[in-house]
Specification:
Blueprint (H helix, E strand, L loop, with lengths): L1 H57 L2 H10 L17 H11 L6
């Protein structure tokens, strides 16, 4: 009876050791995955900050003006380059309204 009990206890001890080894291995794997995920999070945070700063820089008024001037060859409107268009219908209507008796 003592031998059977000893064999049973040895088997239980071996099973417990195997479970401990398996649990330790899984724990190490999960810790490695957690560490990799944290590293990826830091990398993505840095990339987000860089892209956010770049988006803010591209939206500034000076950048828009520079792009319009350099790429689209636009220039500031001055009276010398401005062409004023007169609407003949609007001019006739305002002249008719200004003259008494012209209507009807």
């Amino acid at each position: 009876m003592g031998l059977k009990l000893n064999l049973l206890l040895v088997a239980a001890l071996l099973a417990s050791c195997l479970v401990l080894v398996k649990t330790s291995y899984e724990s190490r794997q999960l810790f490695a995955q957690l560490d990799a995920a944290r590293a990826e999070q830091r990398q993505l945070d840095a990339e987000y900050k860089r892209l956010d700063a770049e988006a803010q820089a591209q939206g500034t008024h000076l950048r828009v003006e520079r792009t319009a001037r350099e790429k689209l060859l636009m220039r500031t409107a001055t009276p010398g380059v401005t062409a004023y268009v007169v609407d003949p219908l609007a001019t006739a209507a305002s002249a008719a309204a200004a003259t008494p008796g012209a209507s009807r």
